[in-house]
Design brief:
Layout (H helix, E strand, L loop, with lengths): L1 H14 L7 H18 L30 E8 L4 E8 L3
Antiparallel strand pairs: 1-2
Length: 93
């Protein structure tokens, strides 16, 4: 059953939107998707959060809907923009 879920996720979230051109391209797609799947994608079976958190602490702000002073949200496209990863980072002055 878990294998069927992973294969279904790969199909639904990756291969339904990308056409691999050859075996090497397919391997590159899988490598990037596997990293995204294991690090940046929330897993409901593991409870709230991510399996491999990228940043350990988030500075406190005065309001829960405002970013901490001196920080911004940075995004990184995954699989050519099919998915995106977001993180909080310090602004460079």
């Amino acid at each position: 059953m878990p294998c069927e879920r992973v294969i279904g996720s790969i199909r639904r979230e990756c291969l339904d939107y990308l056409i691999p051109l050859n075996e090497g391209h397919l391997k590159r797609i899988f490598r990037e998707y596997i990293t995204y799947y294991n690090r940046g994608r929330p897993h409901s079976a593991l409870g709230p959060g991510f399996p491999e958190p990228i940043q350990a602490t988030i500075p406190a702000s005065g309001h829960r809907h405002r970013l901490p002073w001196g920080h911004r949200v940075a995004e990184r496209p995954v699989l050519g923009g099919l998915h995106h990863e977001y993180r909080l980072e310090k602004e460079i002055a």
